[in-house]
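SECTION: protein entry
WANTED: fold as tokens:
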Amino acid sequence: MTNYVKFTNFTVKDSLPTGDTNKVIRGAEFDTEFNAIATAVATKSNSASPTFTGTATFDGITATGTVNLSGLSVTFSQLDAGAVTLSSETFSDVDNQIPTNAAVIDYVAGAIPGIAEVNDLTAVVTWADVPDANITQSSVTQHQAALSIAASQLSDVTATATELNYVDGVTSNIQTQIDNINPSPIHTATASGTLANGDTVIVNSDGTVSAITGATQSAGSDATYVNNGTRPSSTSVTYDTNENKVVVVYKDDGNSDYGTAIVGSVSGSTITFGTAVAFTSVGIGNPTSAVFDSSNNKVVITYKNGTTGYGESIVGTVSGTSISFGTAVVWNSGPTYSALSVFDSTNNKVVVYSPMTAGIKPHAVVGTVSGTSISFGSIVQVDASVTTDSMSIGFDANAGKVVVSYRDSSTTEVRVGTVSGTSISFGTATVLISGNYAPWVVPIFDSSNNKMVLFYDNQAQSRTEVKVGTVSGTNITFGSAVETGFASLGADGYATGVFDSLRNKVVLAYTLQSPQSRYIVSGTVDGTSVTLDSPLSIGGYTAFLFSGSVFDPDSNQTIISYVDDDTDTGEAFAFTTGFTTLTSENYIGISNAAYADAATATIQIVGSVDDAQSGLTAGQAYYVQNDGSLGTSASAPSVFAGTAVSATELIVKG
């Protein structure tokens, strides 16, 4: 620190006589004095919270509050001897002393006696050497694997009650260990879905296990939607996914051929219909076509006006079990011979396909729904060189393309249509069948495999065939024809089909002409081929006249509407597609308990005995059914589950 030193002797100046120039105090002198004062002040420390730099020397410190000695180096010799406990002094539990290392060691050694563990097993240990209190069941059990007692060692032994109780305890423990050894072969894996105790189980491709699920194909009872003494015709059906209702459209021959619609509710396999509503006050032609516009939640019905011969469409709104309509709109003010339609879900448009003009040429037109009305673009001719009344239309939701077929002399051809705005254009034709045209074609889009599946009639071979088509750009290519196994359906071709998106199967309902009988067949697409299941016979000789079908995604059933030519009534029923997760290879055994989804499950596999069954017959062989249950006869595929040894037990085979 720097102290202030005065440079000017003001007393001497004051004593000088008046007029002496040295008596005057000059500015430079003031400047010198104030600079000296400033330097002295700047190098002094504050009395409050001072900060010292360099080497500071203190001659004793008396402080109140906290003294921060950060960075201070203190040697042991500089400490007050009274604050340090040496090894020769008593080390007590106080907070005002600093013990030396030696003091701490001496304190610990004196406070905690030495403990030495002796594990000398070199000497012979007899029972007499071990206190009774140290012989416990657990101690013996711990070493029972090394325990060996010869019979000679037990001779002439008189056991006390206590000793006998001890032996019983050891024996019981050994038996428990034996019981815990599971002789039943098992497999543990992660459950995919829940498992119940006794469920038959399959292994999935990712190594998880699941309960076998499935259903036997079946048809519900007919529900009559019209019965007025005159046979209806021109049936079509669609499904309103907004209201979860089925809508059947038909020409009511008992009411002046008026176009009529009726709404049905599906519950289980039962359909209940509301009140029929006529949407025209004139007769209509055959056939009608109904589609659901999912972007506007509207039903669009397309038909031929029987009075003018024009093509018309009308928009319907479903509410509960009723339907109301806007005003009919003409899309062709000329000769119209039939009306087919699909909903293009890619462009949210309705595409109408119809043979028009005097030459019966295939044409298409695009409609746009707005509110309760529909407007149309310009009509486009699909092929000017053909004259046809044998046509079909479908929609490939993966490619976003319309797929149409038509008869061309002795050939049936297919074209791919692309919607753009309110217009549509078509690619080049691809032959579906040549040498003998198909009088009917049923196109079904398989959304699981993104394929167009076309069932058709090959009259030259007197059989029904199916081809799988792949849409690419504006073209379609087909795999080889697959024989369905049933005969030609005849020129009328009473057939209708949809895709079951739950079971990933195509479904075709058809009527054989000779003998006249009704069937439903489902099939699975594999690549460019299709494998068909065994057809389900509906029974009787009633034809599926003017039939239509739609898949109900809420009840997961196919709804089929048709005209019964025996009773002259309009009927509809629900069909459940047969399916199973079981294959000829993936069955592995039976669930040993109930498990939640994603839990680690124990599965009893081949050679184990499952005890969670009921109603079995001992000595009877059992097979896994398509729904996962057990039966005494094989299903398809045939999978042997095992042999019953009691009413509740089954030896797992597989």
